Amino acid sequence: MHGRLRIFISSTADLALFRDAAERGLRELDIDGDRFEEWPSTPSGPIAECLRGVDSSDALILILGDRYGTEVRDGLSATHLEYRRAIDHVPPKPVFAYVLPARTRESKQCEFVAEVERKQFRSSAETDTPARLSREVRRSLLAEFAKCFRNVHPGGEPIQQPSTVPVTAGGVECTLPSSSADAYPFLHDLYVRGDDEAIFRRRAVIRERFSADFRIMNTLHMATTNIAMAGGMVGQDALENAIAFWDSEAAARMVPAAGRLYNQGNALGVLGRGDEAIQRYEEALQANSGFAQCWKNLGSELEKRGEIEKAESCYRRALECDGTLFEALLAMGQLMLRRRHAPREALDVLNRVAVNLLTSRDTATVEGWKALAHLELGDYRNAVAHIEEAARALPSAEWVWKQAARTYALAGRDDRDLASVAAAFWRRYTARFPRSAPGWGELGLALWRVHRQCEDVAARDEAADALQRATELGSNAGLIWDRLGHIRQERGELDLAEAAFREAARKNPAFVYCLGVCLIAARKYPEALPLLLRDAESINKDARSWFQVGVCHAELGNGEEAKLAYAKAIRRDPVYPHAWYNLGGQFWNEGDLHRAVQVWLRAIRRFPEFERADEVRSVLLSLGADGSSH
Q1: 3-state secondary structure 572-588
Q2: Dist CA 269 CA 228 (whole Å)
Q3: 3-class secondary structure for 57-83?
Q4: Which of 3, 143, 306, 536 is the most buried (most CB within 10 A)?
């Protein structure tokens, strides 16, 4: 029989990082961890060896993710067999189960998790990263040892909940154990779970009752610094006190030098004392050159000062120490995108992040940066896919909605095939932000594109409602009024269309052209002419503007001016068919048949498929001029 405790670690093969983390946690407690991949090949087969490993162990750590694993015997996976072997042992082996968060699980894995949760101890702490799992393994085993000791030690008292004192913070009453022996595990558990705010809310009673307890005060100072680094408000004095605490003789005895200096660097960085923070980080790395997180934080401070080359070098050193360190991968990806303007390189780094191991917040952050990189590359489809992943991970975050709005606004305009997808997003957006004028405007524009692609009248009418809502909410975008004018003109509502186009032109002179065309449709030629002439001479200066000037002159009986305008349109764009056919028509209307035939013959040769080509051919044939023979 072995003299040291041995615990078998069981999980599916894809959770190697979590098995490593569990073994680290056991090693810190001087417990041996047993794992299937540590054994050499054996003639009896791996499953038999695994089950023998369970038999010879003192307990089982069971890590459950989203996958069930391959069924190897009696319809059960290897992990399920190991669990059954442990609980069927006489006496049953203790089982410590850790269920990792997952968006979805395979159906058999859901059944397996439910079976375990009905019968076994299960950690309720958040174990969504390997580091948190390692800490929770240590915490839960220590708690079990303490319970066993108290239950079997002669004269021991029955286990009771530790006594607590009420704490009121921000109007919310919370509790804190009254003795140091119970308060430290309580606070440490909160710290391991990442609930720094819960610790900080209790700071007054912690200082009052436990100021002499180094471990408790260290936990408070670390939680305070974490909150400040995340952007929370803790006060300058709290950070100054933390820095002084880690300079104390007690800290020098209790905390390794690298850890103390690293903590101080974090607090100094939040206080804006970058030079001192960098000095502390560098001293910490002299004490421990393999401190990956310290390399990353040093890089962040250097990047703040604009020392990009040095920052990048630090991030690379961090990843040499720990190639899976999320914070370093994210920082490197952000640097490549923001500083280097290298979206492909940024994606190469960000794609190395094991997103399935992250918290929802961190998952959303990574997916958001991937979306930005794809936007930089003009890859709108992938940008949309990643921002949707961010939204699924963190559906209520304001910043996710804002970035998604930017992504869909660009994607919907530049990739017409995404118009329907964009419209679906903007419907969700306006449901969440019903008073957002830009949101309603983008919904209307997306639906207008859907209508233009497939002549969807329902989409057109919904677009009109959305654009109208945007204007009611105060939209100042000329494009919104312009598209509303187009819809109203298409529906024959010329007075309403004219009003919308006038508002668009008032906000942006580039839309004067559309107002002029609308006035032509309403036969308001005297009003249309000066607007279109201004557009042709000083705004758009293109063939279509001169063509519409020609139409106005022709309708007003200004034949020479009409022909001159059509000629200018042709000079601007020799392949603009409307101007060619109308110029020939103007000669025809004036009785200059020779010039009319000359122009029309050239028009038919250049644009034989134009919508008016057959009509003109009929006229030419009636005159004995066969356009096809020239």
Answers
A1: HCCCCHHHHHHHHHHHH
A2: 10
A3: CCEEEEEECCCCCCEEECCEEHHHHHH
A4: 536
Of 630 and 454, the one with more pLDDT: 454
The domains of the chain, with CATH numbers, are 6-128 (3.40.50.10140), 180-288 (1.25.40.10), 476-574 (1.25.40.10), 577-630 (no CATH)
| 114-139 pLDDT tens trace | 888 776 655 545 577 888 888 888 88
**What's the token pair of residue 7?**
């615990």
Residues 288 and 279: beta-carbon distance below 8 Å: no
pLDDT at 153 over 60: no
> Which H/E stretch holds residue 175?
strand 172-177
What pLDDT is attached to residue 1?
Answer: 40
Edge-to-edge strand ranges of the sheet holding 6-10: 32-34, 6-10, 59-64, 95-99
d(CA 187, CA 213): 12
Cα(599)–Cα(595) distance, rounded to whole angstroms?
6
Distance CA 339, CA 522 (A): 54
The fraction of the chain above a pLDDT of 70, given in percent, is: 90
Distance in angstroms (rounded) separating the CA atoms of residues 135 and 192: 6
Between 352 and 50, whose confidence is greater? 352
State both tokens at 262: 């690293």
> What is the rounded distance in angstroms from the CA atom of residue 616 to the CA atom of residue 371?
53
Contact 133, 126 (CB under 8 A): no
Least confident of 120-124, 182-186, 215-219: 120-124
Please answer whether residues 579 and 536 qualify as being in contact, where contact means their C-beta atoms are separated by less than 8 angstroms.
no
The C-alpha angle 503, 506, 511, rounded to 5 degrees, equals 85
Identify which of 189, 142, 127 has the alpha carbon closest to the alpha carbon of residue 28.
142
pLDDT of residue 173: 43
CA atoms within 13 A on the CB side of 333: 24
Q: Stretch 601-627: mean pLDDT, rounded?
A: 88
Q: Model confidence at 433, in pLDDT bands (50, 70, 90)?
A: very high
> Region 181-200: what's the mean pLDDT?
82
Q: Are strands 6-10 and 32-34 parallel, antiparallel or unpaired?
A: parallel
* Most confident listed range (250-259, 358-367, 431-440): 431-440
Round to whole Å and give the CA distance between 576 and 570.
Answer: 7
Please work out, in degrees rounded to the nearest 5, the angle formed at the alpha carbon of residue 456 by the alpha carbons of 452 and 461: 95
Could you tell me how many residues make up the chain? 630
| Residue 376 Cα distances to 329, 339, 401, 407, 600, angstroms | 19, 13, 19, 11, 48
Quick one: which of 285, 362, 357 has its CA closest to 102? 357
pTM of the model: 0.66
CA gap 93, 222 in Å, rounded: 37
Q: Which residue has the tokens 């958040």?
A: 126
Contact 515, 524 (CB under 8 A): no
Asked whether the predicted pLDDT for residue 73 surpasses 60, the reply is yes
Q: Residue 177: what are its φ and ψ, rounded to 5°? A: -55, 145
Token couple for 73? 């015997």
Query: Position of tokens 């903590």?
Result: 263
For all residues of the chain together, what is the average pLDDT?
Answer: 88
Question: How many whole angstroms separate alpha carbon 63 and alpha carbon 35?
Answer: 12
Average pLDDT, integer, range 207-229: 92
